[in-house]
């Protein structure tokens, strides 16, 4: 295989592996920019994957699967909101609780309903999001350089992939160009000021966590019925935490979030590709290095060695109206 | 007057509220069992029968509880200093490396009671070392401890898999694990304790590390409530600004609290590695680090509470195994569901019932 083919190969799996990260990290962006830490991204993603797979299997419709995924994830967001906004509980603890609950309940219900050890049954092509061939992809396939790039990397993805890349500018626009976004960012920095302006801190934060729920719904759905054809137990496999790392890495900004997710997706794709292969001069690189790299990079960044990542000021602090 | 500032007697704060939270968590779990089409009461009686119905069951319950005491104490020590250590899982994993290296080095030459104290130190040191980096980043660089400890769980997992697959593996074997320790590297079981009560331990790996756990709990109590350092930690946890006005050094206190937390998490490894499987295996921690969060929350971060809630979680784990054996419809992961609900109600929704209780309490007091 020549080097260009390898590159195309790795790039197309980079896209595939980045999509859930992009949706999830954007979800975290909305929530954390409003001052609500969300460790529960992992759980919401997994819950959405399960709901999407179940409903897509029963109704034979990928779109209904997506709706179910979003509904499941939003309801988990509301639980998180109830605990951390209304009850002023610890946001981290609430997120951890959601992760545990979902890790268990998806397997318990999956086994009880389908009896396949926590898996859902294999989905038919009709109940999945299938690849879309962009216009002209087949025509220019043979053209050098551009051809493979266009037809194998840019074209041939499913609708959710394109939606993920649309969600990035859309999130930017919402956060930086709408009144809602301005207020959302303000409530994450100085909820007292927002309150003084006569705007409800709770309602703003609830809307922010619901946005996060919708986006996690997309990412879970992508995992279960676009990338795979069934729910497999624990299929989010730490992606929620990688997305969190990407969010920190991108310093809580939408467009850098996309690039951080692409970088982490690329590392993942590279790890898969490098497995058992020799690198000239170095020898076999243990796959664990690639797996640990996003986390190591995030720690280095957090330590301020490559720029300072300042989280929203009011992040993690429940707002008390008066004392 | 806001209900949050009304003080309630200790028996309500430390007794009634946790019990209420636990009951709600169990009720919801019962609804899940009922939705699956099994009887919640049947499941509950199986749970108790499996965990406490035989000497072997009790042995397994206490074996699980041992790990949870260590990780619960680990989480609690950090919480007292205002640090939320989600990294006990990774610290325990690395602690396993420390205690396995000691056991591998010494088991040929000395009996277990010589190996044990060295292994305790080894496990504690490795656990503390793994906690030291997030601790340093928090103390000196202002990184968020929650994020860094999560990252370190994953880095630790990758590191340990690498070591077990490439370095510590027995040549010619497929399984990524160290060689089995000889008798000098194994902790004896506590069968004789069970015999005192007329019960047989059977195959349960209930071992000496339970006693180490109890000793550790005593020392944690001593440290947190009876020493200057413990007072400084609690002050920092209650109010970092007050602590700084009182001249309590922030960085030093954070470092010490996290190192102790990591060391306690690391010592958890004694139980599965030297007490049960007599070798270091992949993923031997099995989520005990995360259970520690629930245990500590349930036990109100007090060593006595932690021992009780660790035993409760031991019952859940052992009883959960029994349920999944007897009711194949309910898988072992039901434990995670209950655990999640306990964390949610005992931790995040801790004060949900408080206003109502304050109301009831005040009415009674007036009469």
From TrEMBL, chain A:
Transmembrane stretches, start-end: 6-29, 92-114, 159-176, 208-232, 252-271, 292-310
Keyword Flavoprotein: no
Membrane topology summary: Multi-pass membrane protein
The keyword Cytoplasm appears for this protein: no
Cell compartments where the protein resides: Cell membrane
Main location: membrane
Identification of the protein by name: Nucleoside ABC transporter membrane protein
Organism, scientific name: Rhizobium azibense
UniProtKB/TrEMBL annotation, chain B:
Membrane-protein topology: Multi-pass membrane protein
InterPro entries for this protein: ABC_transp_permease
Origin: domain of life: Bacteria
Subcellular location, principal: membrane
Annotated compartments: Cell membrane
Protein name, UniProt field: Nucleoside ABC transporter membrane protein
Keyword Cell membrane attached: yes
Gene Ontology MF annotations: transmembrane transporter activity
GO cellular component: plasma membrane
Segments passing through the bilayer: 12-36, 62-83, 90-106, 112-133, 145-169, 204-224, 254-274, 280-297, 304-323, 335-353
Keywords: Cell membrane, Membrane, Transmembrane, Transmembrane helix
Organism: Rhizobium azibense
């Amino acid at each position: 295989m020549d080097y260009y083919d390898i590159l195309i190969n790795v790039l197309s799996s980079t896209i595939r592996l980045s999509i859930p990260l992009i949706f999830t990290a954007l979800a975290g962006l909305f929530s954390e920019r409003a001052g609500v830490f969300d460790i529960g991204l992992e759980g919401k993603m997994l819950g959405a994957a399960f709901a999407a797979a179940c409903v897509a299997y029963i109704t034979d419709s990928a779109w209904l699967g997506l709706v179910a995924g979003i509904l499941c994830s939003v309801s988990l967001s509301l639980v998180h909101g109830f605990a951390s906004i209304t009850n002023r509980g610890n946001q981290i603890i609430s997120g951890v609780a959601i992760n545990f609950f979902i890790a268990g309940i998806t397997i318990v219900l999956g086994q009880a309903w389908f009896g396949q050890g926590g898996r859902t049954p294999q989905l038919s092509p009709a109940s999945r999001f299938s690849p879309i061939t962009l216009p002209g992809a087949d025509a220019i396939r043979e053209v050098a350089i551009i051809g493979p790039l266009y037809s194998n990397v840019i074209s041939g993805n499913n609708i959710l992939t394109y939606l993920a890349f649309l969600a990035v500018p859309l999130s930017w626009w919402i956060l930086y160009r709408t009144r809602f976004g301005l207020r959302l960012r303000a409530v994450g920095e100085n909820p007292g000021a927002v309150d003084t302006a006569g705007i409800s801190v709770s309602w703003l934060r609830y809307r922010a966590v619901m946005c996060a729920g919708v986006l996690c719904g997309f990412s879970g759905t992508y995992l279960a019925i676009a990338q795979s054809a069934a729910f497999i137990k624990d299929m989010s496999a730490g992606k929620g935490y990688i997305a969190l790392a990407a969010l920190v890495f991108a310093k809580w900004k939408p467009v850098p979030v996309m690039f951080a997710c692409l970088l982490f997706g690329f590392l993942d794709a590279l790890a898969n590709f490098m497995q058992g292969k020799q690198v000239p001069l170095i020898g076999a690189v243990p796959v664990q290095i690639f797996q640990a790299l996003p986390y190591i990079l995030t720690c280095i960044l957090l330590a301020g060695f490559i720029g300072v990542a300042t989280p929203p000021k009011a992040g993690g602090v429940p707002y008390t109206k008066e004392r | 007057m806001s209900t949050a500032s009304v003080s309630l007697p200790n028996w309500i704060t430390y007794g009634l509220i946790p019990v209420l939270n636990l009951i709600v968590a169990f009720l919801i779990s019962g609804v899940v069992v009922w939705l699956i089409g099994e009887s919640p009461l049947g499941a509950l009686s199986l749970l108790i029968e499996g965990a406490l119905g035989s000497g072997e069951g009790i042995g397994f319950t206490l074996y699980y509880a041992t790990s949870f005491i260590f990780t619960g104490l680990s989480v609690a020590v950090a919480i007292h200093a205002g640090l939320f250590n989600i990294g006990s899982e990774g610290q325990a994993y690395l602690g396993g490396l420390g205690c396995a290296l000691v056991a591998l080095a010494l088991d040929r030459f000395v009996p277990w009671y010589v190996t044990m104290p060295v292994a305790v130190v080894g496990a504690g040191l490795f656990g503390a070392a793994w906690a030291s980096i997030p601790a340093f980043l928090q103390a000196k660089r202002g990184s968020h401890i929650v994020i860094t400890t999560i990252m370190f769980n994953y880095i630790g997992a990758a590191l340990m898999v690498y070591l077990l697959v490439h370095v510590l593996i027995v040549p010619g074997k497929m399984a990524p694990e160290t060689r089995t320790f000889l008798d000098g590297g194994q902790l004896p079981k506590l069968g004789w304790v069970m015999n005192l009560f007329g019960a047989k331990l059977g195959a349960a790996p209930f071992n000496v590390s339970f006693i180490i756990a109890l000793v550790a709990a005593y020392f944690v109590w001593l440290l947190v409530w009876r020493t200057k350092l413990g007072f400084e930690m609690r002050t920092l946890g209650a109010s970092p600004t007050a602590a700084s006005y009182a001249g309590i050094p922030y960085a030093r206190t954070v470092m010490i609290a996290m190192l102790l937390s990591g060391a306690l998490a690391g010592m958890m490894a004694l139980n599965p590695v030297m007490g049960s499987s007599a070798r270091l295996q992949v993923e031997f921690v099995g989520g005990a680090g995360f259970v520690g969060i629930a245990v500590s929350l349930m036990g109100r971060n007090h060593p006595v509470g932690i021992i009780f809630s660790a035993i409760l979680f031991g019952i859940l784990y052992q009883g959960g195994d029994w349920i999944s054996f007897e009711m194949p419809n309910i898988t072992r992961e039901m434990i995670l569901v209950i655990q999640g609900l306990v964390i949610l109600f005992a931790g995040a929704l801790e004060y949900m019932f408080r206003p109502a209780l304050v109301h009831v309490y005040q009415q009674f007091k007036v009469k």
